[in-house]
Amino acid sequence: MKKTYMTGFAGVVLAGLVILVTGCDLSVTNPGPIADAALNTPSAMPALVVGMSADLSVAVTQTAEAVALMSGEMVEAGNYADQQYWYAGTFGPDEVITQWDDMQQARWVAEHGILRMQKVMGSDFDTDALAPQAYLWAGYSNRLLGENVCQAVIDGGPALSDSVYFQRADSDFTQALTYAQAQGDTTLMNAALAGRASVLLSLGDWSGAVADAQQVPADFVYDAIFSTNTERENNDLAYNTVSRREYSVWGTQWANVFNDPRVPWDTVYAGSQVQNGQDGHTPYLRQMKYPSLASNMPLSSGAEMLLIRAEAALRNSDLASFTTLVNDERAVYGMAPISQPANVASAWPTLEFERGAVLWLEARRLWDLRRWGAQGVNNFLQGRNSCIPIASDEALSNPNLH
After folding, report:
1. pLDDT value at position 22?
2. pTM score
3. Which domains does the chain have, with CATH numbers?
4. What is 64-112 written as a DSSP string?
């Protein structure tokens, strides 16, 4: 969605340089591309794992943009064509190519990178600090797909249930946890537990989800990393909502939520009037969860774990435990406690609000709305597309989908 332009002035300067260097020997010998086998060395493995992290970050921010509009977290306020379909809930295979491809690339690079690492490092892989990191990136990549796509496709195979991605993520997080425990890495242990708790929830294993979630500290946060080193490393959601005005909080439920540290936004003025978005007419209320291109995006948090436990309690009609856990989550952000809901029916909107606030703009809301819709406790997606379909480029190139 970002565009790079070369000015006419730059072209003139380059033409002048060509004239100045005429007569000089500027010949260069191209050694050709680096052979794939040349990367099969232990010294290349750290860069391989960094690449897994980078591909996941790209996929997360691109998917978070789409999910923000698909799930009503923000409204479309710009001129991009795909965003208008996302916001209307009428998107199809042609409008999700970037998201599908980025998510699949993140999964493929992590999974196949692990196979390469095991081959290159041999038995050293099992004790190397890179092992749990690699499995974490694979787990989060599979979870991103499971929570957002309609059907799973693995490396050119047939269309499968989206639960396939949750099952793969469960295995990845379990491996990450095993390695992190053996190495005594508390941070990676918590990330693996938190990631696995979220996919066990999605697989319907509530007892397993609670068992993992209750081991994660309330103040824990594990992020997808962004920076301003290169454009590819930028948080693209920040680019389109801060550098540009393509999305707005105006018109969403969050526009009526003030001074909530989980859902930070502000009003931008042009003189004495509220500034409009890029479309020229939508009032621009700016998200400030990601204020810069280097803002990281949470993948898991202790606050989310408290809400997993709260939802499990609600499903068991345990309103006392539900209220305690919600208030523990709110305390993480220094927020006042809530009163115990009168009954289970009135508690559901509270749970949906709290989880929506904690996971705001993290590419998680569409899945929550989809599973709650199936349960009959939320109808936001009624009449709208509820998941990302197999992208048209995948459908055209994959013979198993014809």
Report:
1. 46
2. 0.91
3. 42-215 (1.25.40.390)
4. HHHHHHHTTSSEE-S--HHHHHHHHT---GGG-HHHHHHHHHHHHHHHH
